[in-house]
Amino acid sequence: MNPFLSNQSLPLILCKSQYKIDSDLVKMYSTSIKCEPFPFSGFSSHYKNTVPPTAVLTLSLRDLVSKLELPHGTLHTGQEVEFINPANLNTVLNCTTTLLQNSVRKSTRILIIQLSVEDENKMPILIGKTTLFTSL
After folding, report:
1. Average pLDDT, the chain
2. Quick one: how far is CA 116 from the chain centroid?
3. Would you call 31 exposed, middle or buried from its count of C-beta atoms within 10 A (0-12, 13-18, 19+)?
4. Distance (Å, rounded) from C-alpha 53 to C-alpha 3?
5. Per-residue pLDDT for 6 more than 70?
6. Top-confidence range, 12-26, 100-114, 116-130
């Protein structure tokens, strides 16, 4: 979907995706950023299968980047994230990406996009906003 040409009313749901946080995904993430796969396991046995919150955020942003056809030169200018609840190994997560703002100033398009992630029980995991500047 290309929201840049859209004249639809906002907010506009750009995509919904679902993914399972399995051990391969956690291993790939922890290897790529050189961190412990389960960093909270030392605090309590209750958190032994809790995945890094930034892994969930990374998956959500990966979906955003892969599904939006962002033009070359897109600038990521800001991001706000609230981690609400932990996600555990083998949890199925549902991510909704919503376009909140699509405005033009001079030769720049400003997009504000919301990320919302919840588990299979509809428990919120994270919510965030990201701001992108693109050329027209």
Report:
1. 85
2. 7
3. exposed
4. 28
5. no
6. 116-130
What confidence score (pLDDT) does residue 114 get? 95
Other CB atoms within 10 A of residue 112 CB: 17
What pTM value is reported for the model? 0.83
Proportion of the chain in helix, strand, coil states, percent, rounded to 5 = 25, 45, 35
The pLDDT assigned to 99 comes to 92
Contacts of 16 (CB under 8 A, 6+ apart): 94, 95, 96, 97
Q: Are 112 and 131 in contact (CB under 8 A)?
A: yes
Radius of gyration, alpha carbons of the chain = 16
